[in-house]
Amino acid sequence: MRIGLGVTRLSLNIKVRKLDGIAHYTENLLSELINLKSHVHLLQFGKTGVNQIGKLKIQSLQSFPSTLFWDLPFFKQKNVPNGAIDFFHSTDHLVPIYQDIPVIATVMDTFPISHSGLTKEFFLIRWLKNQLWIRTTRKADHIITISKYSKIEIMRDMNIPASKISVVPLGVGDMYFKRTTKNVAQKILKKYRLPKHYFLFVGSIQPRKNIEFMLNAHDRIFNTFNIRYPLIFISNDMFKFKYLTNLLEEKQKKGDVLWLQYISDHEKQSILQHAQALLLPSIHEGFGLTILESFASGVPVIASNIPSISELAKDAALLIDPYNLETLVIAMKKVVKDKTLTNLMIKKGVLKAREMTWKNTALKTLAVYQKVLKK
């Protein structure tokens, strides 16, 4: 089996040293496919990213828009690259149209379609991008998605039949199950001047993460219950929502919020392990990978009761209404005051995380590859 893996998003992210969720998924899938001795050929559209990942060189194809001309009747269909692969797996929104090899597309969720008003782009531009994405994805031979809820979204928003969609959940890295040593942890916490107790958010700064809602709940628990735990943000400014970054910077000046933008995975691991709780009151998620990382780290989770998170977290997290501020405030108070509850949450979370590894993600992905190639 000769796997053609699309790594355009990962390649660009590595170049700017900021990995988003799609890039993180691609990186871990690639690593596990290599560990499983799979024959992987890396492909990217254009030449704007890096030219190598680990020991594997990346072959640059024509820019993505130009590949879509190959679907027109007067263009001769091409195999890429020169018969060296059996199929193409797109791990991002760049789904090529090839007639002589199967195309598999990973679709995390349909947020840009279902919640286009929460994206940054001008309405017409976002609509055009969505129409192109829907068109190319429909032409794929098979779709991989990350949760049962995302499958329902894809069927609804892209009009793709259930028979063409396989659910392959994400995994959690082994590193999160390992505690950093006391000395190392102390150095990292001291480096960032972190107190003994704090709440934590890990993710991108964008409206769907419910940033303002989270900050308002934090203000409330400070003022109402006198729980003086700062709120730490581990996130980057990749999406450039200025009004949100301005709000964070203003809160940071007051001292009750700390925004960490450039930290290593090792530092993130240690900061996560020592958090009082992870907060993820998102309006929309396809999966909620940081929840799984927190479970593995032995950290209580407070998250939205939206379908995708409920599917993942079930009874291992405190689930709140992302439109009702009081539910988040009460949950934050519980993880501070009720040690019996938090200990039970930690135990359930670790058990849940042990069921979900990146190796299992890769094995299930390979099963999809085999299914497609047999057709």
Number of domains: 2
What's the average pLDDT? 91
Name of the CATH superfamily of the largest domain: Glycogen Phosphorylase B
Principal-axis shape equals: globular
| CATH fold title of the largest domain | Rossmann fold
Low-confidence regions: none
Question: Could you tell me how far the N terminus lies from the C terminus, measured between alpha carbons in angstroms?
Answer: 14 Å
User: Quick one: CATH class of the largest domain?
Assistant: Alpha Beta
Please describe the topology of this protein.
Layout lengths: L1 E5 L1 H9 L4 H15 L3 E7 L6 E2 L2 E6 L2 H4 L19 E4 L12 E4 L4 H4 L8 H17 L2 E4 L2 H11 L6 E3 L14 H10 L7 E4 L8 H15 L5 E4 L7 H13 L2 E4 L4 H9 L3 E4 L8 H9 L3 E4 L2 H7 L4 E3 L4 H13 L1 H16 L3 H17 L1
Parallel strand pairs: 1-2, 1-5, 2-4, 5-6, 6-7, 7-8, 9-10, 9-12, 10-11, 12-13, 13-14
Antiparallel strand pairs: 3-4
Report on the structure:
The mean pLDDT is 91. 45% of the residues lie in helices and 15% in strands. The radius of gyration is 21 Å and the shape is globular. β9, α8 and β10 form a beta-alpha-beta unit. It folds into 2 domains: 187 residues, 3-Layer(aba) Sandwich (Rossmann fold); 181 residues, Rossmann fold. The strands form 2 sheets. The chain has an 8-stranded mixed sheet. The longest helix is centred in the middle third of the chain and has 17 residues. The two termini are 14 Å apart. It contains 15 helices and 14 strands. It is of the alpha/beta class.
